[in-house]
Design a protein that fits this description.
With 147 residues, the protein is an all-alpha fold. 67% of the residues lie in helices and 0% in strands.
Length: 147
């Protein structure tokens, strides 16, 4: 049985983690790093990373990249921006890192995703396309063969 002070401390820590997650959701286009996120909630970077992973199943950086890839998918479906423009629009500073993470989560490179989206999902309403094409976290995307 946990004591009330310990339970209250746990709830305060969860609230701080939720603030970090909400900040990532709001500011995903900004240059965010774990140290800055930790400073914002008065935690060490290591403690934030461990607690965030326990609470949400992935590291703060992984969560940030997932948010960026989700937004990138929407921009690529629109079709009016190239992959490099989308990379920078979602807050990534490295096209290589962006493309690698995109491929891990979506199962195909962003250029292939953009091309396929232009060919096939134009008839889907945006809310449906967003749900069906949601990236899968933690390298769970099935490997695709052929492009």
């Amino acid at each position: 049985m946990t004591s009330r002070p310990a339970a209250a401390q746990h709830l305060r820590e969860l609230a701080r983690l939720r603030r970090v997650r909400d900040r990532i959701d709001r500011e995903y286009t900004q240059p965010l790093d774990v140290e800055a996120l930790a400073r914002g909630v008065h935690m060490s970077a290591g403690h934030l990373s461990r607690q965030f992973r326990l609470a949400y199943g992935e590291s703060p950086y992984s969560y940030l990249m997932t948010r960026r890839v989700e937004r990138a998918m929407a921009l690529l479906r629109r079709g009016d921006l190239g992959v490099t423009e989308v990379c920078f629009a979602v807050g990534c500073s490295s096209l290589g890192t962006f493309s690698t993470r995109f491929r891990e989560l979506v199962g195909m490179p962003p250029s292939v995703y953009r091309r396929r989206a232009a060919d096939g999902s134009a008839e889907l309403p945006a809310c449906v396309a967003k749900q069906v094409t949601r990236p899968v976290r933690n390298r769970e995307a099935a490997p695709r063969t052929g492009s």
